[in-house]
């Protein structure tokens, strides 16, 4: 990575770093979609609902993993931009070790919390059985998933995004194959689908570790000197991502709580099916964010603040275009999309009636998220956290508890676009203040 190259080919550099990341993240989302397909077609609609009820657990892992990893990648990237390669490598080693330690600790704690969570949500017998069957295995898979994601960020930061993309392709293909074998052929149900995820993640981890043992040019595995200052700085710098993911987990819990009480299991299933597309689009946003962040950190560390800002603006234009494209695609396919996952006309009808309302949020969410990534990449955690806190918790929770009470399931679909539109106002204010500081 060279400053002159970024200046001369800004757009192509953004795409060069982002497209492999987007592909990798989309492929990761397809694992979730494939799990949902096999759950719905080989286990039942209650199994889809059960998996969705446990998504707050997944977001807890993602929140901790992203907080440590993105914060660490930003510090390492700025160190490399300043020419301090040794510090960057030490930050890498500490980040991976801390990610593993924290995610394993979460698995131990979560194992004791299944019962209270299901009682609060008023889950019934079949949903409870599927939930426990699936997530007891996923407690082993999720720490591996988090470590894999962290290793992938550093591979991209080193300038080898295609390697991580290839590993992700392997992960997806293996996961889908094992889903088919375990659920479709051997009829192992929800446990079989969870086992497919665990095996795929473990195989991917081996290939990622091989990269750092044999191929890495900058970041190498090995001993490190733990730095409390770097740890605190990384956690603070990645705090917005933690807030974003934890807020998503909290709001997902709130969604499930409200839908289960007002609509029932069919409502949760319909919301989950629409959520697959929303999750896939969020992976596009994250891919652009992870692809542009090393460039932004490098430029900012080199004193090129305006160039870092230009990268943000160009990336925002890309995610807006992506949101418009996904909205148009789903408008053309809304009639058959729900039936792809369940053979239940009531659930499919809910999906058809709400999917475009929900996806109107895509016109705003990308800009909000990329701006949050930008503030994190330049070390301005407070501004990043303000955006994440607004779109992921405060405004969204208010919408979840008011709009469904007023408009039923339509209110559920309206919560996301109303939240993102309101957050866009906050985002614009923070960027205006940033421009005044730089002037």
Folded structure, characterized:
The chain has 439 residues and is mostly helical. It has one domain (3-438). The chain has helices at 3-8, 10-43, 45-53, 55-81, 85-110, 114-121, 125-157, 161-185, 189-215, 228-237, 239-262, 265-301, 305-337, 345-359, 362-377, 381-407, 409-438. α3 packs across α12 (265-301). The longest helix is centred in the middle third of the chain and has 37 residues, at 265-301.
Key words describing this protein structure:
439 residues; mainly alpha; 17 helices; 88% helix; globular
Question: What secondary-structure arrangement, pairings included, does this model have?
Answer:
Layout: H1 3-8, H2 10-43, H3 45-53, H4 55-81, H5 85-110, H6 114-121, H7 125-157, H8 161-185, H9 189-215, H10 228-237, H11 239-262, H12 265-301, H13 305-337, H14 345-359, H15 362-377, H16 381-407, H17 409-438
Helix pairs in contact: 2-3, 2-8, 2-9, 2-12, 3-7, 3-12, 4-5, 4-7, 4-10, 4-11, 4-12, 5-7, 7-8, 7-9, 8-9, 11-16, 12-13, 12-14, 12-15, 13-14, 13-15, 14-17, 15-16, 15-17, 16-17
The gross shape turns out to be globular
Q: Provide the low-confidence segments as ranges.
A: none
Tally of helical segments: 17
Number of strands: 0
Structure class: mainly alpha
Q: Tell me the major beta sheet.
A: none
Strand content: under 5%
Number of domains: 1
Fraction of residues in helices? over 70%
TL;DR?
The protein has 439 residues and is an all-alpha fold. It has helices spanning 3-8, 10-43, 45-53, 55-81, 85-110, 114-121, 125-157, 161-185, 189-215, 228-237, 239-262, 265-301, 305-337, 345-359, 362-377, 381-407, 409-438.
């Amino acid at each position: 990575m060279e400053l002159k190259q970024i200046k001369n080919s800004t757009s192509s550099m953004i795409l060069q770093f982002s497209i492999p990341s987007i592909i990798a993240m989309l492929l990761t989302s397809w694992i979730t979609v494939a799990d949902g397909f096999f759950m719905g077609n080989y286990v039942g609609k209650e199994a889809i609902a059960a998996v969705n009820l446990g998504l707050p657990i997944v977001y807890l892992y993602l929140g901790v993993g992203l907080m440590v990893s993105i914060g660490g990648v930003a510090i390492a990237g700025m160190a490399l931009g300043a020419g301090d390669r040794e510090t960057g490598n030490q930050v890498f080693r500490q980040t991976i070790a801390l990610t593993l330690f924290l995610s394993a600790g979460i698995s131990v704690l979560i194992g004791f919390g299944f019962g209270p969570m299901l009682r609060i949500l008023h889950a019934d017998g079949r949903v409870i059985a599927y939930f426990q069957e699936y997530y007891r295995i996923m407690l082993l898979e999720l720490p591996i998933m988090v470590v894999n994601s962290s290793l992938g960020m550093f591979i991209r930061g080193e300038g080898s995004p295609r390697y991580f993309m290839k590993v992700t392709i392997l992960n997806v293909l293996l996961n889908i194959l094992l889903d088919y074998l375990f659920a479709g052929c051997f009829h192992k149900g929800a446990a079989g689908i969870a086992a497919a995820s665990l095996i795929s993640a473990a195989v991917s981890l081996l290939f990622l570790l091989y990269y750092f043992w044999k191929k890495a040019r900058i970041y190498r595995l090995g001993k490190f000197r733990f730095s409390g200052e770097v740890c605190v700085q990384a956690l603070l710098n990645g705090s917005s991502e933690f807030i974003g993911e934890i807020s998503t987990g909290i709001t997902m819990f709130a969604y499930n709580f409200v839908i289960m009480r007002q609509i029932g299991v069919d409502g949760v299933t319909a919301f989950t099916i629409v959520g697959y597309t929303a999750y896939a689009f969020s992976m596009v946003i994250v891919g652009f964010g992870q692809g542009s962040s090393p460039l932004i950190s490098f430029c900012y560390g080199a004193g090129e603040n305006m160039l870092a800002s230009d990268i943000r603006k160009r990336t925002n234009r890309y995610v807006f275009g992506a949101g418009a494209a996904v909205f148009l695609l789903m408008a053309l396919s809304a009639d058959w999309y729900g039936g792809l996952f369940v053979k239940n006309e009531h659930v499919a009808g809910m999906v058809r009636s709400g999917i475009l309302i929900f996806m109107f949020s895509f016109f705003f969410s990308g800009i909000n998220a990329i701006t949050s990534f930008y503030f994190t990449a330049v070390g301005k955690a407070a501004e990043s956290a303000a955006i994440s806190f607004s779109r992921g918790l405060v405004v969204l929770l208010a919408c979840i508890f008011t709009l469904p009470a007023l408009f039923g399931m339509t209110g559920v679909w309206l919560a996301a676009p109303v939240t993102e539109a309101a957050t866009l106002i906050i985002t614009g204010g923070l960027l205006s203040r940033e421009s005044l500081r730089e002037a």
